[in-house]
Amino acid sequence: MSSGIAGLDEMLHGGFPAGHVVLVLGPPGVGKTCFGLQFLVGGLAREEKGLYLSLEEDVNALELAAKQFSWPLEDGVRRGKVKIVKLDPRQANTSMKRIMGELPRELEDWKPKRIVIDSVSLLSLLAESDAQRREALFDLATACRKCGATTVFTGEADPNHPETSRDGLSEYVADGVVLLNYQDEADRRRVGLVVRVVKMRRTSHARTRQPYVIGSHGIEVDAKAVDLGRV
Q1: Do residues 177 and 194 lie in contact, with contact meaning Cβ atoms separated by under 8 Å?
Q2: Among residues of the chain, what percentage have pLDDT more than 90?
Q3: What integer pLDDT is reported at residue 30 of this predicted model?
Q4: Is residue 230 part of a domain?
Q5: Local confidence band at 97 (pLDDT 50, 70, 90 cut-offs)
Q6: Where are the strands (E) in the chain, listed by range?
Q7: Which of 54, 100, 117, 195 has its CA 20 to 30 A from that of 85?
Q8: How far apart (Å, rounded) are the C-alpha atoms in residues 81 and 55?
């Protein structure tokens, strides 16, 4: 399934394997929410249903972000092809009940092709204990796989270990991990953005770091910057 990002699809030799749960990991500001939206609206051209579960941005903010890139998110919502569900971390009991009780049934009934959970790192704010957080994360991944969807989880990287998640668990639950990060340019005066596919089960993929930009059409990966065939 296409990630919605052409250069990344090239690194993945075609896209995400259907049914995978993919963690998009990185520090603040690298475009994780943009990635999730781009993945979701990529399915609209194929008339695929998509669900966006947000623990951060509200619905208006997500629609404004999509408008910035001229993505038809609002049209998808209006036509019933996209559902946006906002959970409030301040209402922990209600939100956890929705995640662990109601959401799996909704997914099974509606059967979206694409799901975005933004961000799984905030589950720690909802859970009463580490055990409940682990249970919620595993239940989410299981529900997404069970309904047949391909899913993107976004997550914050550990500031001290930028290639691992802050919760230390999400990358083990996921079938694939895509790392977004900063990288100093050659002149050491500018900071660029790079993407790397850390793992992707049951498929081959490039193991290079490729530069990307967040431009007028969203995330654009330069898959030719480093020779994919030689690394």
Answers
A1: no
A2: 74
A3: 97
A4: no
A5: confident
A6: 21-26, 50-54, 82-86, 114-118, 150-158, 161-165, 176-184, 191-200, 210-215, 218-221
A7: 195
A8: 20
Amino acid at 64: L
Token pair of 216 as six digits: 């007028």
- Alpha helices, H only, 91-214: 92-97, 103-110, 123-126, 130-146, 170-173
Query: Alpha-carbon dihedral of residues 138, 142, 143, 149, nearest 10 degrees?
Result: 130
| Euclidean distance between CA atoms 185 and 179, whole angstroms | 18
Residue at 50 is within a domain: yes
Q: Domain residues for 158?
A: 6-221
Tell me phi and psi for residue 34, to 5 degrees: -60, -45
Q: Supply the pLDDT for residue 187.
A: 64
User: For the whole model, what pTM was predicted?
Assistant: 0.93
Relative orientation angle of helices 130-146 and 103-110, to the nearest 10 degrees:
10
Question: Cα-flanking dihedrals φ and ψ of residue 225, to 5°?
Answer: -60, -40
Residue 227: inside a domain: no
Q: How many domains does the chain have?
A: 1
* Residue 186 confidence class, pLDDT cut points 50, 70, 90: low
Question: CA gyration radius for the chain?
Answer: 17
Q: Which residues contact 20 (CB under 8 A, 6 or more apart)?
A: 150, 151, 174, 175, 176, 200, 201
Tokens linked to 3: 């990630």
Mean of pLDDT values over 46-62:
95
Which CATH number does the domain housing residue 140 bear?
A: 3.40.50.300
Residue 204 included in any domain = yes
